[in-house]
Amino acid sequence: MTPRLDLIGMVVSDMAASLAFYRRLGLDIPAEADGLPHVETVLPGGLRIAWDTEDTVRSFDPSWTPPTGDGRRDLAFLCDSPAEVDALYAELTAAGHTGHLKPWDAFWGQRYAVVLDPDGCGVSLFAPSAPSAPAA
Questions:
Q1: CA 12 to CA 51: how far, in whole Å?
Q2: How far apart (Å, rounded) are the C-alpha atoms in residues 51 and 57?
Q3: DSSP calls for the chain
Q4: Which end of the chain is more exposed for a tag (fewer CB within 10 A), N or C?
Q5: Whole-model pTM?
Q6: Burial code of 16-25, b = ≥16 C-beta within 10 A, e = fewer?
Q7: What is the pLDDT of residue 123?
Q8: How far apart are CA 13 and CA 4, in angstroms?
């Protein structure tokens, strides 16, 4: 099992302004997304980029505060299973990296955890909480 980079997440204070900026860089984001608390789009090659409002992040991490410098980026690594999220979190924290959110079953259907990289940037570890149903 090898975790793979799946999503680049950004916390924004003004969703519409942020999306307008990224549209100018060529990302295909529908205008109706401007008022949403969470927006994501798939990049060429399958990597996803997502934006969350500050209020959305505070809904599951009440201790979150806006950074005073850089720090609104969050790399998210897709794991093969909920058990791998737990094991990887344990491995990284045992190696001395700071755990920010211990593994938990998130309300959006994922096993989810956050570890800080050496620069203090959040790195999310996640996997679907339940196996996906086979395609019909």
A1: 7
A2: 10
A3: ---EEEEEEEEES-HHHHHHHHHHTT----GGGGG-SEEEEEPTTS-EEEEEEHHHHHHH-TT----SSS--EEEEEE-SSHHHHHHHHHHHHHTTPPEEEEEEE-TTSEEEEEEE-TTS-EEEEEEESSPPPPP-
A4: C
A5: 0.68
A6: eebbeebeee
A7: 87
A8: 28
What percentage of the chain carries pLDDT values higher than 90?
Answer: 65
Residue 105 β-bridge partners:
111
What does the pLDDT read at residue 131?
A: 64
For the stretch 74-130, pLDDT in tens is 778 899 999 999 999 999 999 998 999 999 999 999 999 999 887 787 889 999 997
Short-list 114, 109, 111, 107, CA closest to 83: 111
Structure tokens at 48: 């996803």
Measure Cα distances from 51 to 19, 56, 99, 102 in Å.
8, 10, 22, 22
